[in-house]
Specification:
Elements lengths: L7 H20 L2 E7 L10 E7 L4 E8 L3 H11 L8 E12 L5 E10 L7 E6 L2 E2 L3 H12 L6 E9 L1 H10 L4 E7 L6 H4 L26 H6 L4
């Protein structure tokens, strides 16, 4: 509760660099390569032979305004350190939640986008720090699928995600892989909390009645942008 606007951006950056490493290690194809070291000038056995990320595979990072902007930028910058910059792209989607009179999320509205081309054979990464209902990820996946083509796959990266979001994404966007620093299910039954996640799926809950994550972080989008409302 005492983490403020000054500390949060760097914490988010560090977390997303770690998440990106996990996504690339698990989702990207690898190729065995033999690379010389600096010592190879004097020693013919001075080489490294191992599996390396396939540098021909493309990565599209989707920045969802507003809380997703910093995570996407952090992923983009970290990706171009290990992949050819020409194969890494940063897109932007302006998505707005729609709610009913009880302030419950009913869907996501697309107000605008800046997409830099097709996504054929590319991994599309959607960094969304607060995976509450899963609606944002599902809508983003729909946007790219409507482009046509054949993406390599979709991956969502969350700092925290709820069981409700996991259920929605796996149901409405099958094949989308979910990565998260934490599964927030603080409103689950006692026996569910005492068990491995997924043991009692009908008793797992991470959203309260107005769809805030519990325990959650609270106001991350506002903190990241220092919103005054």
């Amino acid at each position: 509760a005492d983490t403020g606007t000054a500390e949060l951006p760097q914490l988010v950056r560090r977390a997303y660099v770690r998440l990106l490493q996990e996504v690339l290690a698990r989702e990207f194809p690898s190729r065995v390569q033999q690379l010389p070291t600096r010592l190879s000038v004097n020693e013919p056995r001075a080489f490294v032979k191992d599996g390396f990320l396939c540098r021909d595979t493309r990565l599209v990072v989707c920045a969802v305004i507003r809380a997703g902007l910093l995570p996407a930028q952090a992923c983009y910058e970290a990706a171009v350190e290990v992949l050819p910059p020409q194969n890494v792209r940063l897109d932007f989607l302006n998505l707005q939640r729609t709610v009913d009179q009880d302030h419950r999320v009913t869907g996501v509205r697309l107000d605008g986008s800046r997409i830099g081309g097709p996504v054929d054979d590319a991994l599309v990464l959607i960094p969304d720090p607060m995976g509450a209902t899963g609606a944002t990820v599902c809508r983003a996946v729909d946007v790219y699928r409507e482009l046509g083509g054949a993406p390599r796959g979709f991956a969502a990266a969350h700092l925290m995600v709820t069981p409700e979001a996991v259920r929605r994404v796996t149901s409405l966007s099958p094949g989308t892989r979910i990565y998260a620093g934490r599964l927030d299910r603080g409103l689950s039954s006692e026996r569910a909390l005492a068990s491995t996640p997924g043991t009692w799926p009908d008793e797992e809950r991470g959203l309260n009645d107005v769809q805030y994550i519990v325990p959650g972080a609270g106001g991350m989008g506002e903190l990241l942008t220092n919103s005054w409302v």
